[in-house]
Design a protein that fits this description.
The protein is an alpha+beta fold. The protein contains 5 helices and 7 strands.
Amino acid sequence: MEAAHDSRAAQLPGELLYIQYEHALEEKYLPAIRALISKDLSEPYSIYVYRYFLYQWAHLCYMALNPVDKSLMGVIICKLEHHASHSPPTHRGYIAMLAVTSSFRGHGIATRLVKMAIEAMAERHADEIVLETEETNVPAMRLYERLGFLRSKKLHRYYLNGNSAYRLVLLLKSTDPGPEVV
């Protein structure tokens, strides 16, 4: 098993560069981000959806770059907001999009991007992090569950393509107020 991992790792162009997205990078990387995400995710997102996330939460979005030519190999796009539907209200992180170039999957790029996003949201006092993923996307389900996410709800026919999804939740802080002290 280790030998198989080593031969796959040899395909990487060296130690990848992991960087936080910045507004100054839009012209260079937004077209590549859109192309990478639209290739694999079920929803067709307009430029405005990307800008909604990237303008407000650039500090929660990360890219994996090829060290040789600085081309995009992976990206995670997230947000963090006050979520009032819980009692008490929570500070909820959300992983909106995650994609890795298909030829470089299985090298830990997605795991590293998700860990970076979790850490950034935890540092900003997130109580929980949620996301949705297609029930048929077994590699994504494995990745998130390996990182501690739990299935909280099945969303029937959630995507435009008719596929169902699971909402996954990673609890970072207890939402149980504990026993009331009188």
